[in-house]
Amino acid sequence: MNVFRILGDISHLLAIIILLLKIHRSKSCAGISGKSQILFALVFTTRYLDLFTTFISAYNTVMKVIFLICAYVTVYMIYVKFRKTFDSENDSFRLEFLLVPVTGLAFLENHSFTPLEILWTFSIYLESVAILPQLFMISKTGEAETITTHYLFFLGLYRALYIANWVWRYHTEKFYDQIAVVSGVVQTIFYCDFFYLYVTKGWCKSKKFHSAFLR
């Protein structure tokens, strides 16, 4: 395991913690797409089924369990505990537009035609587009709280660090997973404009921002 992988995992976990703390402290899930969080929970569920079949390392197992727990706690807080604060009207992205093509692609393009491998491939493809309902929600409302921009920033940073991880692994191990790399690059592209405006427009310090990156 290299430093890029570790930093990527930390950035990913930090993004989730930021979101959970935001909901817990404000007792509100306003501005947060519940549909994106459902997709992320589905991503972790289908990807980490090997918890029951394969042991890689204690670190790997612990991180998988943490991500699964955090994903379902987030969904619970949005749809149960603080459901009255959930903006369902603006969280209107149609999930079938993502789930149908991703499912089809997972059956067509995978490493081997086995249930676990297809589900793992499905999770990789789905993760690359799971943030779209959140970005769509921001574009629809025209604004977002600072804490949501931090969440998106660290999610994007996680993907960027994982690209560095793949480059390092190819350089040192000659390892290359085309499905993971292509999907990761596609996902990172969604964050490119956001990264630029986050830094240059001072969104990390402002309370709200307009969704110029989606115009």
UniProtKB/TrEMBL annotation:
Annotated Gene Ontology cellular component terms: COPI-coated vesicle membrane; endoplasmic reticulum membrane; Golgi membrane
Biological process according to GO: protein retention in ER lumen; protein transport; vesicle-mediated transport
Highest taxon listed in the record's lineage: Eukaryota
Main localization category: membrane
Coiled-coil parts of chain: none
Membrane topology term: Multi-pass membrane protein
TM regions (residue ranges): 62-80, 120-138, 150-168, 180-199
Keywords (A to Z) from UniProt: Cytoplasmic vesicle, Endoplasmic reticulum, ER-Golgi transport, Membrane, Protein transport, Receptor, Transmembrane, Transmembrane helix, Transport
Subcellular localization(s) per the UniProt record: Cytoplasmic vesicle, COPI-coated vesicle membrane; Endoplasmic reticulum membrane; Golgi apparatus membrane
GO molecular function annotation: ER retention sequence binding
Family per record: Belongs to the ERD2 family.
Protein's name according to its UniProt entry: ER lumen protein-retaining receptor
